[in-house]
Amino acid sequence: MAQIDTIIASPSPVECRRLQNILEKEPDFRILAQARDLSQTYTATEALSPAIVLISQSFAALPEFEVMHMLFRVLDTRWLVIENGDACTPHLKITRNSDLFTIDLRSGGAGLVPLIRSVTRAQRRKMVPARPVRQSMPGQKKLVMIGASTGGVDALATLLSGFPTDCPPTMIVQHTRHSFGGSLIGLLDRQCAAHVMPAKDRMRLDPGTICIAAGGRAHMQLAISHAPQVRLVPSAPVSGHLPSVDAMFHSALRVAPRTVAVLLTGMGRDGARGMLELRQAGASTLAQDEASSVVYGMPKAAWENGGAQKRIPLVDMAAEILKAASMSGEEAKP
What we know:
Elements: E1 4-9, H1 13-24, E2 29-35, H2 38-48, E3 52-56, H3 57-60, H4 65-75, E4 78-83, H5 90-93, E5 102-104, H6 112-119, E6 143-148, H7 152-160, E7 170-174, H8 178-191, E8 195-198, E9 209-214, E10 219-224, E11 228-233, H9 245-250, E12 259-263, H10 272-280, E13 284-288, H11 298-304, E14 310-312, H12 314-325, H13 329-332
Parallel strand pairs: 1-2, 1-3, 3-4, 4-5, 6-7, 6-12, 7-9, 8-9, 12-13, 13-14
Antiparallel strand pairs: 10-11
Helix pairs in contact: 2-4, 4-8, 7-12, 10-11
């Protein structure tokens, strides 16, 4: 009988104990670990690669669960949400494209074991080596800047998978908590042909380099000396965020004709003002369309204020960015 390796993730010792009592009666279940917060859940899942994670509803409702969900997909780990009686938050509903199932422990967990056996029955995918060989796109002339917030983790994974190994130098601001920035970057680096790395002060922006500021304590800005490089500038939040998309976009105004600015799914308006400034200075500007956005906030604001030249479906965004990056400033004008 195949073992079903399981991780229990809940802030409640009572909930963990109830789940453990149910599963320990079954000979084909093995509990690998119990996690009391989302960071512990991520670490245990990445290290132990369980067949399934039973995760508290309160964890699944956190914005940072986007990163957790991406790890589940990479490892082909199943997951079940354990309802605890709290009302579902709006963010939990955002997981509409996931393999979401729920179990209500208030009914004694009836049906939990058969459901776990059912969702783990299929053979798990083997891990595919990262960095597939991809055809490069000659003639790249520009720097790419991307801003994203809610829903951005999946959007970035989709977009960056379409970038070649020698993609244009790319700067990305993704709103997330500090503790999950490194995890997100590591996951994206596994999945992309180009090299994805955390933003570091004074790092060079060379072709094939994608640097991400996610949950940091400084704004990521562009500096131009002999070659473009990243500057990390500790400061107050801009447009309500640190790091801020607006702050990143504003730093590229001097080289706007050599910049492609992109806004992906996200709540709020961060990036909309900076995108408008860049467009007025000669940059190519793109916004994700409403149909493919999880939250049509940031891209909507950029479209409505005139900052975005085009609205692009997510599946077409990588190709559109690479096309814009290969054009001169005059060619890129609509």
